[in-house]
Amino acid sequence: MTLLGNIIWLIFGGFVSGLGYIIGGLSLCLTIIGIPFGLQTIKIGIATLTPFGKINVVAEDSSNLLTMIFNVIWVILFGWEIALSHLVHGLILAITIIGIPFAQQHFKLIPIALFPFGRNLQDVN
């Protein structure tokens, strides 16, 4: 089911979204200050490419001061827009029965979009 879900996800917008995140992350990495944020954007892009069969995991070092500072800066500059986008897309997809599994994937990406430092999507296996 996860393979089929990921294939359908990629065909209907997941590839373009993930590629957009990766290109945006690479452009953020052009500056020294933007490298940590660019790496997180690339991580979100990779998570957006194939979200089926993965769970949201909080890392052990997610409570240190630097991670919290980066998360606050992220939320103010980028995170709320990305999370709002996933929320709107998830709500639109949840209108139909066929769209509910895809809406769940958007809702799964919201915490990573809000606070990417200290969070990862890992395989269920």
UniProtKB/TrEMBL annotation:
Residue intervals of the Inner membrane component domain: 4-54, 69-119
Regions that span the bilayer: 6-33, 63-80, 86-103
PANTHER family: INNER MEMBRANE PROTEIN YCCF
Protein name per the record: Inner membrane component domain-containing protein
InterPro entries assigned to the protein according to its UniProt record, in alphabetical order: Inner_membrane_protein, UCP028777, YccF
Lineage: superkingdom: Bacteria
Keywords annotated in UniProt: Membrane, Transmembrane, Transmembrane helix
Record bears the keyword Transferase: no
Single GO cellular component term: plasma membrane
